[in-house]
Amino acid sequence: MLAYKLTNTQRGELVGQLFAPNQFFNPVSNIDEVYFIFEGEVENCVNEEFMWVKQLAKQEFIPLKNKIY
Description:
By secondary structure, the chain is an alpha+beta fold. The chain has helices at 8-14, 39-43; strands at residues 2-5, 18-20, 23-24, 28-29, 35-37, 58-60. The chain has two helices and six strands. The strands form two sheets. The chain has a four-stranded antiparallel β-sheet with strand order 4-5-1-6. It is globular.
C-alpha cells in the first residue's frame, strides 16, 4: 500500500489538525516507526495551512502489525 511519508517535524505539525471540516489528520507509524498519512487526507485537504501535504512523496507503507519480533 502506498502512503505519504512525513518527517517527525511534519508529523508534529499535523497531529490533531483539520485537513477539511470535521476531518483530522491522523499520522500512522509504519513497521520502521516512520509516520505516514494516507490518500484521503492528502486529496481532501482544503486547509490552506497544510496544502504542502499535496507535495509529499508516496512510499510503500508496511503496517506496524506486520512487524516480526
